[in-house]
Amino acid sequence: MHCGAVFRADSTRAGAKARAQRPGADADECVGASAGSNDDRRDLGEATGAGHSKSAPQCSHNIFSSFDANQKAQATRVSAYLSSLQTLVGNFVQVGPDGSRSKGDFYIQKPGKVRFEYDDPSPIDIIADGSSVAVRDRKLATQDIYPLSQTPLRYLLSDRIDLLKDTNVISVTADDVFISVIIEEKQALIGTSRLMLMVGAKDGQLKQWTVTDPQGYDTTVAVYNLDSSKKVDPGLFKIDFTRYPTSPG
Hints:
This protein is mainly β and about 250 residues long. It has helices at about 40-45, 70-85, 155, 165, and strands spanning about 85-95, 100-110, 115-120, 125-130, 130-135, 140-145, 170-175, 180-185, 190-200, 205-210, 220-225. An eleven-stranded antiparallel beta sheet has the order 6-5-4-3-2-1-11-10-9-8-7, covered by helices on one side.
């Protein structure tokens, strides 16, 4: 497993891409993936963008100048919301490229720290300590390590962010339910990946994100029961290199 697209699918995996769904009435209907085998761990790496595949680069242009005043205002609103967060705790449902689903709890402490704890039967935890991301298999007692700087989730974990200035935003759309911002990123040898952030049009809170890997596979994570006031234990973000040795990549 390699690093690049925050929770991506292996290009050899059979199965249709999971389509992002609206996490309105029931976030359970939005996302998932079970872990255990190495293939499963690749899927789970996608939620954070830990994984990559080589592919032909996709066409993209920085279209900041073509955004109208409303699009810029919506992107600014999302940037202000993300920048205002220091901690965030909640539940998530993840849907993998093959439609498989998993659930769990997540904890964010900015800058750069996050923990995803997947419910059984998945043995996976994902931990970012501010500089590295560990995809840990509790059952096998192993973990894979990737630089946080190579995962799209770093945008969510930045202390402060101006999406239009700090990222390559290619799309800003809004309706009565969601404001959606799509960020595109090209990396040498890896290819082009995309991160779509969706916040509520009414409450302005994070609802879900979708990572599209260089092969075009989507992994969607919907979040709910959010609490931005809860104090988070700093110990949750420690990567244990003793108990969980790094497995061969």
